[in-house]
Backbone:
């Protein structure tokens, strides 16, 4: 009973994400955060204002996003991301049967076998920014709709807003690889 009086729990929404706030009378200055079943949990002093809590929640959400972005995606996470991108940019039309990382691809960033619905991304992309990985996934998903690189294909990949930026990034990496000595 005494611990209930020392702590109060409240669920709030910050920038569209649920946050569990645990206010503690024992806590005087420190604020900690962790994730519980995908929900951010903040432990804060009782005296903190709602605005201060929201500011801390945003800061911790940003930190957790950066940490997650640095961790390489598994094959299953890559497949989930491909399905999400298919839904977002192509109304869910291309449905890849398998999406995986490939250690065999050294010249290409990605490849698609349209007859089997299989997409493979070069394992070299694992350490690159997520938006670059997403661009390559969108490119390969577009091949499940249009096999060539003509005007229709270019219109499909242009739906991803960072296509040109990702192409430039990958061109720079390729150039550096060719000129490394």
Residues:
């Amino acid at each position: 009973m005494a611990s209930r009086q020392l702590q109060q729990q409240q669920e709030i929404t910050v920038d569209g994400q649920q946050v569990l706030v645990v206010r503690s009378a024992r806590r005087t200055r420190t604020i900690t955060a962790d994730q519980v079943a995908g929900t951010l949990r903040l432990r804060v002093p009782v005296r903190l204002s709602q605005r201060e809590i929201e500011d801390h929640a945003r800061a911790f959400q940003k930190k957790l996003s950066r940490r997650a972005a640095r961790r390489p995606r598994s094959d299953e996470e890559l497949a989930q991301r491909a399905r999400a991108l298919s839904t977002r940019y192509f109304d869910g039309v291309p449905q890849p049967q398998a999406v995986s990382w490939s250690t065999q691809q050294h010249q290409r960033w990605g490849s698609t076998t349209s007859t089997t619905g299989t997409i493979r991304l070069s394992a070299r992309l694992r350490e690159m920014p997520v938006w670059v990985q997403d661009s390559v996934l969108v490119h390969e998903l577009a091949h499940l709709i249009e096999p060539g690189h003509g005007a229709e294909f270019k219109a499909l990949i242009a739906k991803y807003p960072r296509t040109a930026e990702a192409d430039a990034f990958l061109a720079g990496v390729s150039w550096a690889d060719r000129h490394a000595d």
Notes: Residues 90 and 156 are 8 Å apart (CA to CA).
